[in-house]
Write a structure and sequence with these properties.
6-stranded mixed β-sheet, 4-stranded antiparallel β-sheet, alpha/beta, Rossmann fold
Length: about 240
């Protein structure tokens, strides 16, 4: 796989001895890793492996944690997502969170208010479908098209990093591949760090550069996505 030069001006995530729990359930166990600015990273694992919990920890979405996460020089504060996103972290949850009664363009403009961004042109350039459908109500769009709206809304906040929780869930194979290709384009054109949790493993491995696999909250693989894809015992890591 050909690797691009990483955007060293983008802040990186550093995870140090991180554990996260929900009551008696430990979801993440003593994880340490770094995510370089401008990279594309996939986090994989079966249901209950801790992958979504690790993603949430990157933006402070889990209250009970030990260890720490930093984004650039700033600590990520547990249970304070609304403050942590101001560091330049965009989040696209699995629920997509579009405004179904509003047009695509209105959804984008509302999302851009936090960053005082009223210019949709860059988003339209990267996601031309949204320009074509800008006057359509987002609730009347297909699941794949709504996912594009959700990504576009996050981009309107001008994030340095974009965290996505299973963005291809419920999409057709074609729509899933289109969504992942759009994320690759966002990374390459804007330098935005992409961290994506997915169960659509083989297709996502083609888009990301690095793969992190969790099992029972622990990292069991961390390396080049192409190396993982070529392994004859690929599925033994899950």
């Amino acid at each position: 796989m050909e690797h691009k030069v990483l955007d060293t001006q983008q802040p990186s995530f550093k995870v140090q001895n991180l554990s996260a729990s929900y009551g008696a359930l430990v979801a993440v166990r003593d994880v340490s890793l770094s995510i370089e600015g401008g990279s594309r990273v996939g986090i994989f694992g079966h249901n209950g492996s801790g992958k979504s919990s690790l993603l949430k920890c990157l933006v402070g979405g889990v209250k009970s944690v030990n260890g720490g996460v930093t984004f650039g020089d700033a600590p990520i504060q547990p249970n304070l997502v609304h403050l942590n996103v101001r560091l330049g972290i965009g989040v696209v949850p699995q629920s997509r969170n579009v405004f179904p009664s509003l047009t695509v363009e209105r959804c984008l403009l509302i999302a851009g208010m936090r960053a005082n961004n009223v210019d949709c042109s860059e988003v339209y350039e990267i996601l031309p479908l949204l320009k074509e459908r800008r006057r359509q109500r987002s609730g009347l769009m297909s699941g794949g098209e709504q996912q594009m709206v959700a990504i576009g809304m996050s981009l309107m906040t001008r994030p340095k990093a974009l965290l996505l929780d299973e963005p291809t869930a419920g999409l057709s194979p074609v729509a899933a591949r289109n969504a992942l290709e759009c994320l690759k384009k966002v990374n390459e054109r804007m330098g935005t760090t992409i961290v994506i949790v997915e169960q659509n493993i083989l297709t996502t491995l083609e888009m990301v550069e690095r793969a992190v696999v969790l099992r029972s909250g622990e990292v069991v693989f961390d390396g080049n996505s192409s190396d993982l894809a070529r392994k004859e015992d690929l599925w033994s890591h899950f």
